[in-house]
């Protein structure tokens, strides 16, 4: 029979995290136990780390003594998990690989946290994510509200309001270019970080294609118009 416990800042969770850890979502994760296996499911805004591996909106198998972090600052202890599941769990001695494909013998776990279970830890995955979320989003800038609909960011639809929205169009698109990645990351479900990057890259490429086509068509029409004017002027001489 499957058991499930919930983790987060909301008091109703089986494992309640203090409100002072604002990087932890109110509903941050679910932990399942079934037939001797333990699965960790991230459902948070900021993601989680299991043995230095960043996960977001996905489910992975975990083992006792794996280092589990909620967000970047809160370490989830195995004693808390064991007590919540009521299981006397031990790390399997014959297990050599876990879901990320790394050998237990070669695992490089972060250093033990200080008292209180919190420390400021940021690995390469976290830095890559932060850098990506703070980068300019060409797809959001160019397509504006249309990009927003497909990425779970709906407030840019205000530009469709007659007169008021039209005047705000450029400002809205600039704001989307600056903050689009961060809002899209929180706005819809992504399989993982790579899925997020692929989708945003595709939007950026389409923005480039459309912009290039616009330039080519504009130059072509301008050339034709100039030719017509030139011919008309010559005919009137």
Tell me the major beta sheet.
Answer: 5 strands, mixed
Number of strands: 9
Q: What is the N-to-C succession of helices and strands?
A: EEEEEEEEEHHHHHHH
Strand order of the largest sheet: 2-1-3-4-7
Return residue spans where pLDDT drops below 50 for at least 5 consecutive residues.
Answer: 91-123
What structural category arises from helix and sheet content? alpha+beta
Mean pLDDT across all amino acids: 82
The geometry reads as elongated
Tell me the span between the first and last alpha carbons.
94 Å
| Radius of gyration, taken over Cα atoms and rounded to an integer in Å | 25 Å
Summed up, the helix count is 7
What's the helical proportion of residues?
A: 40-55%
Percent range for β-strand residues: 15-25%
Quickly describe the structure:
The protein has helices spanning 78-85, 124-133, 138-143, 145-150, 164-167, 169-187, 193-236, and strands at 3-8, 15-16, 29-34, 37-42, 48-50, 53-55, 59-62, 68-70, 74-76. The protein is of the alpha+beta class.
Describe the protein's topology:
Blueprint: E1 3-8, E2 15-16, E3 29-34, E4 37-42, E5 48-50, E6 53-55, E7 59-62, E8 68-70, E9 74-76, H1 78-85, H2 124-133, H3 138-143, H4 145-150, H5 164-167, H6 169-187, H7 193-236
Parallel strand pairs: 1-2
Antiparallel strand pairs: 1-3, 3-4, 4-7, 5-6, 5-8, 8-9
Describe the structure.
With 237 residues, the chain is of the alpha+beta class. It is built from seven helices and nine strands. Strands 2-1-3-4-7 form a five-stranded mixed beta sheet. A four-stranded antiparallel beta sheet has the order 6-5-8-9. The protein is elongated and about 100 Å long. The protein starts with a strand and ends with a helix. Mean pLDDT is 82; it is low at 91-123.
């Amino acid at each position: 029979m499957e058991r499930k416990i919930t983790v987060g800042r909301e008091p109703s969770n089986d494992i309640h995290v203090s409100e002072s850890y604002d990087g932890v979502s109110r509903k941050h994760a679910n932990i399942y136990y079934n037939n001797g296996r333990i699965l960790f499911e991230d459902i948070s805004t900021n993601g989680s780390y299991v043995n230095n591996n960043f996960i977001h909106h996905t489910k992975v198998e975990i083992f006792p003594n794996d280092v589990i972090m909620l967000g970047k600052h809160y370490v989830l202890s195995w004693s808390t998990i064991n007590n919540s599941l009521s299981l006397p769990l031990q790390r399997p001695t014959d297990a050599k690989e876990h879901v990320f494909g790394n050998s237990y013998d070669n695992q490089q776990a972060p250093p033990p946290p200080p008292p209180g279970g919190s420390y400021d830890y940021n690995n390469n995955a976290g830095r890559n994510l932060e850098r990506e979320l703070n980068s300019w989003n060409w797809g959001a800038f160019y397509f504006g509200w249309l990009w927003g609909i497909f990425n779970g960011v709906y407030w840019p639809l205000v530009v469709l309001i007659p007169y008021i929205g039209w005047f705000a169009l450029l400002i809205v698109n600039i704001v989307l270019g600056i903050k689009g990645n961060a809002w899209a990351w929180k706005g819809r479900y992504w399989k993982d970080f790579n899925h997020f990057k692929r989708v945003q890259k595709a939007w950026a490429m389409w923005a480039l294609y459309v912009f290039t086509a616009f330039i080519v068509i504009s130059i072509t029409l301008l050339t034709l118009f100039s030719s017509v004017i030139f011919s008309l002027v010559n005919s009137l001489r």
